[in-house]
Amino acid sequence: MYLDAEDEKILSGEFGETRQKMMEILVALGRVYNAEKLVPIASAQVSGASYKTIGKWGLEWLSTLDARVAVPTVLNPIGMPRDEWRDLDGITPEFAHQQEAVLTAYHRLGIRMECTCTPYYLQRTEYGEHLAWSESSAVAYANSVIGARTNREGGPSALAAAIIGKTPFYGLHIVANRRPGVVVEVEAGDSLHADHYGAIGYLAGKEVGNRIPFITGIRPGRDQLKALGAAMAATGAVALYHVEKITPETRVFTFETEGLERISVGLQDIEDLFETMDVDAVAIGCPHCSPDELREIGDLLTGKRTTKPLLVFVARSVARDNQDLVAAIERSGAMVVPDTCMVVSPAMDHYKAIMVDSGKALAYVPGMCGALARLGTRKECIEVATS
Amino acid sequence: MILKGRAISKGSGRGELLVSPAPISFLSGVDPETGIVIEKGHPLEGESVAGRVLAFPYGKGSTVGSYVIYALAQNGRAPAAIINTEAEAIIAVGAIIAGIPMIDSLPADLSDLPGGSIVTVDGDTGELACDDAT
């Protein structure tokens, strides 16, 4: 792999041990994936932020590092709201202490103390930019909805890219590798509802696996694309998808889909995922809510009181910038929770059945929280939480 | 005998060659305190990787496996070196952050390597040197 003079100096240790190690990681990955060069990145998002995930040894390794990130960098959601963890059941002081130590270790590296799966709401991300992002739904959104270019990074490789400011040029950074490998035909016509997209992604991801799907028959907006991609990344390993005439690359490139395998998703398959079941909590915000979604939830809650715990997960700065919307939601008794989510927080572990509006959460809640998951529309979620 | 592969993680390591025909998941597959393979039914179950040159096809499982490799090194129970048929990110990153020499892509199948004999891995040149059989 080609390295420029400065990269070579970093690799030889001239800029300190941490940068040297980080460059060694990038060079090794470049070899593993046959990258010809490194490419500068615009931003990074680092996974392995929850103490529950990286544990004692991950924390110990992070604490040995001594460098600053070279590009704007945020973290994946952590196991609790950073400052308000006492408000949630199930977070012990011991866990909070270890989680704070992980954050301190990342903070020393110059990483913004934002823990979110929706970094695109914080940092303007442009078409064609190279990134090193980790979280699967964020990767799917950046690649597909924005048309930026990122592979799905592991925690240390995203951190190495953040500190060096570059990533090996392979995989989805290369335009030729972004062509579709399978067609998904959604056959639901006008009966399709905005809240169906998580279910479509849940179903399609299982069939698509790690291929790049070209999806026809839908006209989703940005929030629906977010739900669709997050679910496909959860039940499959989809890092990039195209929606005909909607996502940017389908308008820039002409994709040949003749001869590709075709998968069909029908309205009945989608509706069958929406079950009826008693639940003891309702969770919204997987991935973290957009301002529009906060407004919709607030509107649905107008004049209502929660009768069950209703948790709404969001990026801290999105909550801070939309305090009126947060207040409207919390007036009902619901909680707007920053930094964490239903999948990574121990706070959801003590419920037996959780209602969600997300195809991704439907896939992960049973395994990660040990609870049954019921999928509902956002309206149904609010009805169940307030009846 | 010297076999030339690809350098992945620098440094030199020497030890008894331990060959696994199956991939290894370090997270929940290897005890970070003892270096013993604990995955049920794994061909190396019960063997210690500590101080040995560990050869296996590739890594599998969670990326947190990189930190388990680091933990093994901190506990003094890491392999002396790692050989993969085809390196992937979990093991490569783990070897680098743990400072374990690593190579891959040797021109021989793992099953043809002289398991049980003393070998040297050079993570700078990508070479595996086997002491000639007597």
UniProtKB/TrEMBL annotation, chain A:
Its EC number is 4.2.1.182. It comes from Methanoculleus taiwanensis. Pathway: Isoprenoid biosynthesis; isopentenyl diphosphate biosynthesis via mevalonate pathway. It comes from the Archaea. Component of a hydro-lyase that catalyzes the dehydration of mevalonate 5-phosphate (MVA5P) to form trans-anhydromevalonate 5-phosphate (tAHMP). Involved in the archaeal mevalonate (MVA) pathway, which provides fundamental precursors for isoprenoid biosynthesis, such as isopentenyl diphosphate (IPP) and dimethylallyl diphosphate (DMAPP). The keyword Iron applies. The keyword Metal-binding does not apply. It catalyses: (R)-5-phosphomevalonate = (2E)-3-methyl-5-phosphooxypent-2-enoate + H2O. This is Phosphomevalonate dehydratase large subunit. GO terms for biological process: isoprenoid biosynthetic process. It is an enzyme of class 4 (lyase). Keywords: Iron, Isoprene biosynthesis, Lyase. Belongs to the AcnX type II large subunit family. Residues 1-383 form the Phosphomevalonate dehydratase large subunit-like domain. GO terms for molecular function: lyase activity. Heterodimer composed of a large subunit (PMDh-L) and a small subunit (PMDh-S).
UniProtKB/TrEMBL annotation, chain B:
The keyword Lyase applies. The active site is at S62 (proton acceptor). Pathway: Isoprenoid biosynthesis; isopentenyl diphosphate biosynthesis via mevalonate pathway. It comes from the Archaea. Its EC number is 4.2.1.182. InterPro entries: PMDh-S-like (IPR012016), PMDh-S-like_dom (IPR002840), PMDh_S (IPR020794). Coiled coil: none annotated. Heterodimer composed of a large subunit (PMDh-L) and a small subunit (PMDh-S). Component of a hydro-lyase that catalyzes the dehydration of mevalonate 5-phosphate (MVA5P) to form trans-anhydromevalonate 5-phosphate (tAHMP). Involved in the archaeal mevalonate (MVA) pathway, which provides fundamental precursors for isoprenoid biosynthesis, such as isopentenyl diphosphate (IPP) and dimethylallyl diphosphate (DMAPP). PANTHER family: DUF521 DOMAIN PROTEIN (AFU_ORTHOLOGUE AFUA_6G00490). This is Phosphomevalonate dehydratase small subunit. It comes from Methanoculleus taiwanensis.
